[in-house]
């Protein structure tokens, strides 16, 4: 991928504790898979940056190569790739996601 795309992705991940690469925006998700992750993050009441890959095909493709993960959405917490919709939903349901956030110093809303 283009170095500028890699730098942009790296920059977003470095400067935001939680980054969600998604289709659409947190206020208007344009795919059900992205909407699930938005719902989880909103439920946890954490701040996050949504990056709409539909606005930029180079980021849409670039993030797949960057994470070595073939689909959107993709969630990053403190620079670490967590996963897509299925993984996030599963980790939320088991409480693992809340624990992961807490371990990394991110305050999460009480259940
Ligand atoms: N099982 C996936 C569902 C996500 C998914 O299948 N995404 C597709 C459709 S939105 C995708 O990103 N396809 C490649 C693309 O649209 O660039 C997950 O857990 O995140
Ligand atoms: S945009 Fe069609 S499944 Fe995500």
Would you write up a description of this structure?
The chain has helices spanning 3-15, 32-44, 57-67, 85-94, 96-103; strands at 18-22, 49-52, 74-77, 80-83. By secondary structure, the protein is an alpha+beta fold. The chain has a single domain (3-103), classed as Glutaredoxin (3-Layer(aba) Sandwich), CATH 3.40.30.10. It has a 4-stranded mixed β-sheet, sandwiched between helices. The longest helix has 13 residues, at 3-15. The model has no long low-confidence stretch (mean pLDDT 97). The site of glutathione has 10 residues, from helix 4. It holds the Pfam family Glutaredoxin. GO terms for molecular function: 2 iron, 2 sulfur cluster binding; disulfide oxidoreductase activity; metal ion binding. Residues 18-82 form the Glutaredoxin domain.
CATH topology: Glutaredoxin
Count up the domains.
Answer: 1
CATH architecture: 3-Layer(aba) Sandwich
Mean pLDDT: 97
Along the chain, the helix and strand elements come as HEHEHEEHH
Major β-sheet strand ordering: 2-1-3-4
- Look at the helices and sheets and give the structural class: alpha+beta
CATH superfamily: Glutaredoxin
Distance between the termini: 41 Å
Q: Quick one: how many beta strands? A: 4
Largest sheet: 4 strands, mixed
**Distinct small-molecule ligands in the complex:** glutathione, FE2/S2 (inorganic) cluster
Number of helices: 5
Q: What is the CATH class? A: Alpha Beta
Set out the fold topology.
Elements: H1 3-15, E1 18-22, H2 32-44, E2 49-52, H3 57-67, E3 74-77, E4 80-83, H4 85-94, H5 96-103
Parallel strand pairs: 1-2
Antiparallel strand pairs: 1-3, 3-4
Helix pairs in contact: 2-4
The site of FE2/S2 (inorganic) cluster has 3 residues, from loops.
Domain Glutaredoxin: 18-82
Protein name: Glutaredoxin
Pfam families: Glutaredoxin
């Amino acid at each position: 991928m283009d170095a500028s795309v890699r730098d942009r992705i790296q920059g977003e991940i470095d400067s935001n504790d939680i980054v969600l690469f998604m289709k659409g925006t947190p206020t208007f998700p344009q795919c059900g898979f992205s909407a699930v992750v938005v719902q989880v993050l909103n439920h946890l009441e954490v701040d996050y940056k949504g990056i709409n890959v539909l606005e930029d095909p180079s980021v849409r493709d670039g993030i797949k190569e960057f994470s070595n993960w073939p689909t959107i959405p993709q969630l990053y917490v403190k620079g670490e790739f967590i996963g897509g919709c299925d993984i996030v939903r599963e980790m939320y349901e088991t409480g693992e996601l809340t624990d992961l956030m807490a371990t990394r110093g991110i305050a999460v809303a009480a259940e």
